[in-house]
Amino acid sequence: MGPKRKLLATTSSQAQGACPDHMKDRFSNLPDEVAHQILSSVSILDLTRFGTLSKKCRELYLSTPSLNFDEFNNWNKSSYAKQFKLLSSLDKFLVHRRENKIQCFRICWSLSYGKAASLYNELYRVVTWIHMAVRCNVEVLDLELRIPDTTRLELPSCIFLCGSLRSLSVHCNKILTAPSLVSSTNLQYLKLTNVTVDEGLCKWISCSCKCIKELHLEHLWLELVHGAKQITISSSSLETLRFISCYAYYSFQNPSGNFHLNISGERLEDIYIDWKVIPTGHSISIFAPNLKHLKWIGTLASRQYLEKLMCLEKAEIFLHPRSEDFSKLFSVLSSIHSVKLLVLNEETTKALTKERRSLPRIFDNLGHICIQSTCLNDGLVPALASLFRGMRHLNTFHMKYEPIIPLLFTKHVEASRFDREYWKSQNLAIIDQLEEVTVELSSGSNELEFARYILEGAKNLKKMVIVYLPHQSTRIEAVNEIEMNSPATIVFKKRPRRPKPSYSP
Question: Using alpha carbons only, how large is the chain's radius of gyration in Å?
Fold first, then answer.
């Protein structure tokens, strides 16, 4: 049986008669911008077939502004002759386009592990396509290239000098060489994934990307030769930064080199950090006076320097602190003490409440807090009570259920030890300030007992939302007993049961 997909050069005969004449005319009569919008979601294979239907269709085929070369990876296992025909067909298509504008061009390509000559020919073709896209004033360029380890790749400098380019995404297991610092670019969006970089590329981003608004650095490999190395991003235009765990190549002469992440931007409004490194010797520094949203996942560094974030509206701190990390955690939370909404995971909440004497200095003016956990387990309840003692102006509290995938041999979590009498014994002054509370039920009775305590004691409560699973409908009947005596509006929401994960042998 032959391959399912035919070469672009041989699709004409298959395409003839694929569409009735009245359908051809109906499509041909559409305004070009409407036709292009429809064709932007069509694969290059089907686009080529469409181009054989009529003269008008061929014009639209050669002027379509969005191209997607990502469906031919299965040809890597074909014969060299078939690969050559395929590559030649794609080459001819781009040549025939002449200089018709390319708005968006995506190349997802896995180079074949064949003879060196064919491999480098294939790589040469891909680089040529990039040159053609630049010639056609491409605005969005998305490159996902999988290249054998023994093959070198150097992206053409024309990418970084392309005045029309607004968005660039590079996902590649190769070194990305920094362009000259004197070069300038109009890039507004840049995403680098799985590439190896040096400090020079970060300097180029800081010095030459004067229009950049959104930057994603994900799973980078940083070349370290000697001493402490760092990624420094300093931008006067950047608004959004996403940084996910940077890895490092250390030299044999200095296997303990340190890594430092420095972020600085007066217009930064949104920062996402997923930092999972051994904290020894590493540091994070953030200067973003106008930051509105901060999300930090993973671990703390040895040292973190956060300027006071006075404009922060929402902070999500999902850390896994060690027992000796309290002072570091306290420092981070002190820098965001003016935040309007604080979201903490279970591990951060427990670590924070081990030393209670300093809590009021952090949360004295906090009005809205959300705790995310798999359940209100017996270990979290005392920590939550301690957290409440450090708050005087809290008016909105959410207990959010965050499920995890069940694992074999998972230890059973106790979540039914603390009832209303325990909460009453804490004498929490904050209960009179609460106006809105949301509780999502999971396992055990702790959440329900906590909800009943709030309904009975919160004099100024205006609204309580109780989210429950279908099998928990009988448990919430206890709330109905006190519903008539509470001034609050009580809303019950049924949460659909998530499907059980499937396990394959």
Answer: 29
